């Protein structure tokens, strides 16, 4: 595992991290901050243009990001939101961490559009999310809008949109540290300074741990060992007015992420750097926003083949260099069209390019027989128009549409021999035809305030997602199983509708939404045959393995409902609960006929969460939270089952004085077995076991 010595200066003054946002409590008299003791939905710090009235028509959850958890785990409490795997970024393979909503999953690419201050965050090559990169950021809150067709935000939102918002820090320095089970360390730093009318924010984090053994007890062999991890990040944000109306926002961040999967030849390394610049005018009659951004990503991954008795392992595959780049821009203008009408017009452009460099078929653990390079580029550009109308005192109507043009270019896959008798011989050299097309999408809805406390809403939408470079051009293996790429994949297209009701009388807030979605051309890994044999695109598959290919399914149909409730019991004491029921099934024909009517892989029917939290004005407090994930299937043919799981987390914090906070917390208090994967020979992996933490946080003026 790589060692990042530049993180030591951060650790030296901290030595212990990952504690609550205590500084938020200290800022209770600042109108730009949120007091933790007031557990009502947060007032989101506006970083772009303000939300439109028509957004009330769509099912949305606004939540404060809990700094006692990683960003990804904070979002797990949102009903219907899930990652491809149940494990988090401390133990999961980075390439499996796609995020989705409403049961529209089935592979590792995200089907929800993740944005950070308006910038798309999906990996340019694979569409997954590098979650450790966000723990270094000074974030305020998140808005999760369920349902496809993001309208103004571009392609990719076939299941919903997740927006992360940076915080307004002010003048503050905070240092935090925590030490946990298995020699785990979390550390973070937040530095904020107001420079004239501008704001400079520098934030950083570092995390490491010896890890746990992913394979469940009773199935382990001599090769199994703890899966250690080490992660770090740094972010700089500067915001300053350029005039009375125009604000400049600039962001730069970088992260590194090393993990092991719990046996030799299973190392993962992921790193990246982002930069963005945005100009925003919220105050003129003609409001507008202009954004440009750059993403740079690279990862390398090694895979080992473990014997059935788990007493020996050999390297079978490595992606030793996978560079990728994302470029994009977006512009929006809101002309003044009257007090009762809000109009937004704009366009966006995004380009991704990347290449995977791989070695495979190893003669021994250090000598590959063959090498592969594959990759290409994609581009999308489009325009949108959306309007909201206050039709009456109680009724808001909204609707809009967009047109997108897409292209898939420069696709290739080349394999060569590396060892004698024909070193350098080309086994295959494929160049794929460029393709292009266009997509028309739109959405519309209403929000009707029936009483002061009761709002009825409904919406319908169309959305789409372009296949990633990973899905189009890169075959892969997991253990003995092999999956071929498919350069002819078509874009996914979703159509859906929902009806909901919201009740808010102050202390009690309830939301209920029923939905139906149909994802046409859903990209999935379709099992075609069993080994042994030589199969196109992957080569030899052993007798214990299966052969699959990425294909467009006829459709995935998903229907269900979501419930979100929050109760302010007494001052400082809040209870929150959420539940999601999803009935999803595959519509498969042709090669996918065998999975027709089955549930998509990795999709549970039931998800639930609940928490009770008490916070005092000085930062002392306690909380208890529980999560339930229903049974789900590992594979598309619904043979390999992952059991349901129930976990409990807890936290206690004591403010020693107005600058020092002491915290203890526990993850997975009952040490429940959370199954995350099961292989074709029945080997089961689990997520994080019970973990205790003790930490300190100090604020320095």
From TrEMBL:
This is TonB-dependent receptor. Keywords: Cell outer membrane, Membrane, Receptor, Signal, TonB box, Transmembrane, Transmembrane beta strand, Transport. Residues 1-23 form the signal peptide. It is found in: Cell outer membrane. Gene3D superfamilies: TonB-dependent receptor, beta-barrel domain (2.40.170.20), TonB-dependent receptor, plug domain (2.170.130.10). InterPro entries: Beta-barrel_TonB, Beta-barrel_TonB_sf, Plug_dom, Plug_dom_sf, TonB-dep_rcpt-like. Belongs to the TonB-dependent receptor family. Residues 254-669 form the TonB-dependent receptor-like beta-barrel domain. It comes from Parasphingorhabdus flavimaris. It is a multi-pass membrane protein. Residues 67-161 form the TonB-dependent receptor plug domain.
